[in-house]
Design a protein that fits this description.
The complex is a heterodimer of chains A (290) and B (414). Chain A is mainly alpha-helical. Chain A has 13 helices and no strands. In chain A, α8 packs across α9. With 414 residues, chain B is of the alpha/beta class. Chain B has helices spanning 2-22, 35-50, 66-77, 90-97, 105-111, 113-116, 119-124, 148-153, 162-174, 186-210, 215-218, 221-235, 246-255, 266-273, 307-321, 323-333, 349-364, 379-393, 399-412; strands spanning 25-30, 54-59, 84-87, 126-127, 130-131, 133-135, 139-140, 143-147, 178-180, 258-262, 282-286, 292-295, 298-301, 367-369. In chain B, the strands form 4 sheets. Chain B has a 5-stranded mixed β-sheet with strand order 2-1-3-13-6. In chain B, strands 9-10-8-11 form a 4-stranded mixed β-sheet. In chain B, a hairpin with a 2-residue loop joins β4 (126-127) and β5. In chain B, α5 (105-111) runs parallel beside α15 (307-321). The longest helix of chain B is centred in the middle third of the chain and has 25 residues, at 186-210. Chain B is globular. Mean pLDDT of chain B is 87; it is low at 6-21. Classes of the chains: A mainly alpha (290), B alpha/beta (414).
């Protein structure tokens, strides 16, 4: 009896969460895939009609804008956050006295929700209220910073707010990585008279490769599922210039009664996530086998 | 033996059914939660209770009804629909096609709705020949509001053509006043667009383009002219308009920062709440061109089980279209009654103008549904049009490109 229990208790304890994940994650992914093949409007329908929703999706200029925005936002958000995070981490790593305080200051934006970040930056970047007005009041009459109302630049305004929010978190990740590098190697390098920047670029950063990968994965999924930041900062506007796939999906599902379109755009979003996550999982699993 | 059992059972059934009829029940899903609106719903609630009914309130705030529609979807899918739901326009027929709406023709015919409602508004309340919804009010969308002092100081009269409007706007801009108060949200862009379209395309053209989705009209030169005028309107808006709420734009007109605003008659509520008098402090007029664009709120009745709930539905429908509720509710809400035989003595001059225009346009066939407020088209189509309108308004897209994009977007939304 005890032996039987020992063998089966782990399975029994895991079963509820396993079933919940099976149904509520993978079950609903399958359900969404099915609905995306139908002509569902207000309520889901289940007669499969083929790829009509995907044809409509890729013919829609608005979804085109959303995907382009995702690419611009995703790339800049990830690259700038990582570069800035690494830079701050290296500067904080110089054994300065107030490190604890500074670290907390940089990490704090992560404690805010994206809605708060978006709303605050909406005001900061509003030309009539924020930076532009302030600098003009100082006497620089020609100063202009109106990205948030310019359809061509608005997505970069979203990048600014996103980077502000996430770079502190990336800094914390990198700082932990920097600290984990073996001190003996660094000392040996210093004894050999190698300059500091060379120690970082040739020894420390290469040995932090796994941290880069983790930071990339965290930032990538933040970028792809970004929704609240855009809603609070620009509401998808001006026009639909800052729409992302997530806001497109929301508009179709909840404002327009076009559930088929929403489901197909959700599937495309999932495909983008898979394109990033699958190579990562593959490399993770492979290294374990070696 | 069998007959006596049957008789006994039916006797029990009848006695059970009797008290249920006496107590009408209604669960009402709506999104009227802000100050003035909540007060308006309370009027209906009180009247329902006075007639012996039990009202279960189910307000769902947020997203201009999006959240309420999500709640409704969940309730219908679980087979437990509310008694009555605030729905409007083609959404009523869309839900009817899902097979979930009830028939309230008995009440409608007993109360003679067909005689007191304008024909085109009554049309929205019917599903394949039966009545399935009850109208609450008529908002007019194609209003132009103006600051009386600003117009007087600059020697401008209320414009009656778009050329006059452009001339007035140029004069105001030269005087350093923002000609048009506007908020850069997609639905506000669409509101201005449909007002311009009604003026330039005329009532017939508007109906062909935005009710029938006639491709030739959507691609016509008239539509190019509409987008040309929209480009001009963009020039009359100040630089900070992005994302501004409509009531802040109304405040700009109130303060004299801006001269005009094109907005439905809910803007009147803002003026009145600030203690401004119609005709003295602010002016109301229909936008240049003939016609009347309406936005009618209504309650659709859903299929429910139980005689008490059906009785609640009948009572509710009767009260909603009743004279008293139509008057009190619309006084609170700033709109006008949907039925034409309500005495308008207590209403203001803008409401009188609205009622007069509604009757006239109903007679000559220019009483039209607003596309921007979801009265003319289903969500997917009106959304596709709004996407193009707002993309054009917020960029330097040419009118010809916009027209082509409009036709493509409409075709793709089917």
């Amino acid at each position: 009896m005890t032996e039987w229990l020992e063998r089966h208790i782990p399975k029994m304890v895991l079963a509820p969460s396993f079933i919940a994940i099976l149904v509520f994650v993978y079950g609903f992914i399958a359900w969404t895939a099915w609905v995306s093949l139908t002509r569902s409007r207000l309520l889901p329908k289940y007669e499969v009609e083929g790829l009509i929703q995907y044809e409509r999706l890729f013919a829609s200029p608005r979804f085109d804008t959303a995907m382009t925005n995702l690419f611009i936002f995703g790339t800049l958000f990830i690259v700038i956050s990582m570069v800035l995070g690494l830079l701050i981490a290296i500067l904080l790593d110089q054994k300065i006295r107030t490190e604890g305080v500074l670290r907390t200051i940089y990490l704090y934006p992560m404690a805010l929700s994206m809605i708060v970040t978006g709303t605050a930056w909406k005001w900061i970047m509003n030309p009539g209220l924020g930076i532009e007005k302030m600098v003009r009041d100082w006497g620089f009459e020609n100063f202009s910073f109106d990205w948030v109302i310019d359809p061509d630049m608005a997505i970069y305004a979203v990048v600014i707010a996103g980077v502000w929010q996430a770079s502190g978190f990336v800094m914390a990740l990198f700082l932990a990585g920097l600290r984990s590098v073996d001190g003996e190697i660094i000392k040996a390098a210093q004894v050999d008279g190698i300059p500091n920047w060379r120690i970082y670029s040739a020894i420390i950063i290469p040995s932090m490769a796994p941290i880069f990968l983790s930071a990339f994965i965290v930032l990538a999924h933040l970028a792809i599922k970004s929704f609240d930041l855009v809603i609070a900062l620009t509401g998808g506007g001006p026009g639909y210039a800052t729409d992302l796939p997530a806001t497109y999906m929301y508009a179709m599902a909840f404002s327009r009664g076009d559930i088929g379109q929403a489901a197909s755009s959700a599937m495309v979003m999932m495909a983008v996530v898979f394109a990033i996550i699958v190579p990562y999982l593959y490399s993770e699993l492979r290294t374990k086998h070696d | 033996m069998k007959t006596s059992v049957f008789a006994a059972v039916s006797a029990v059934a009848i006695t059970c059914a009797m008290p249920a009829v006496a107590e009408p029940q209604a669960e009402v899903l709506h999104w009227w939660t802000s100050g003035g609106e909540a007060k308006s719903v309370a009027v209906l609630q009180q009247e329902f209770a006075d007639n012996g009914g039990t009202w279960t309130d189910m307000p769902v705030a947020g997203g201009g009804g999006d959240a309420a529609m999500t709640a409704l979807r969940a309730r219908v899918l679980s087979g437990n629909a509310p008694t009555a739901v605030q729905l409007k326009g083609p959404a009523i027929q869309e839900w009817y096609e899902e097979g979930v709406l009830a028939d309230i023709s008995a009440v409608a015919e007993a109360e003679g709705w067909a005689d007191v409602l304008p024909a085109s508004i009554a049309g929205h309340m019917m599903c394949e020949g039966t009545w399935c919804a009850a109208p609450v009010n008529v908002h007019r969308v194609d209003w132009i509001w103006a600051n009386a002092d600003v117009l007087e100081a600059n020697g401008i009269a209320m414009p009656t053509t778009w050329d006059e409007f452009n001339a007035a706007a140029d004069k105001l801009a030269a005087a350093g006043i923002t000609p048009l108060a506007h908020g850069g949200q997609a639905w506000q862009d669409a509101t201005v667009f449909e007002a311009v379209a009604l003026g330039i395309l005329g009532a017939d053209g508007f109906k062909k383009a935005f009710v029938d989705l006639d491709m030739d009209t959507l691609k016509s030169d008239g539509m190019v002219a509409v987008f040309d005028q929209m480009r001009k309107m963009r020039g009359y808006v100040d630089d900070n308009f992005s994302g501004r709420d409509w009531n802040l734009a109304t405040a700009m007109v109130m303060n004299g920062e801006a001269a005009f605003q094109i907005m439905g008659d809910w803007a009147k509520g803002e003026f009145l709440a600030a203690g401004k008098a119609p005709g003295e402090d602010f002016l109301c007029a229909s936008v240049p061109g003939d016609g009347f664009l309406y936005n009618v709120d209504s309650f659709a009745m859903f299929n429910v089980d139980g005689d008490d709930k059906k009785a609640g539905q009948d009572l509710l429908s009767k009260l909603i279209v009743g004279q008293n509720f139509q008057k009190v509710f619309n006084l609170n809400k700033g709109s006008i009654p949907a039925r034409v035989d309500v005495a308008l003595d207590e209403f203001d001059s803008c409401a009188h103008l609205s009622a007069k225009d509604m009757n006239e346009s109903s007679d000559n066939g220019s009483l039209l549904p607003s596309y921007a407020h979801g009265m003319a088209l289903r969500g997917a189509q009106s959304g596709a049009i709004t996407d193009v309108v707002t993309a054009h308004f917020n960029s330097d897209m040419s009118s010809a490109d916009a027209v082509n994009m409009l036709a493509d977007a409409v075709a793709n939304s089917m």
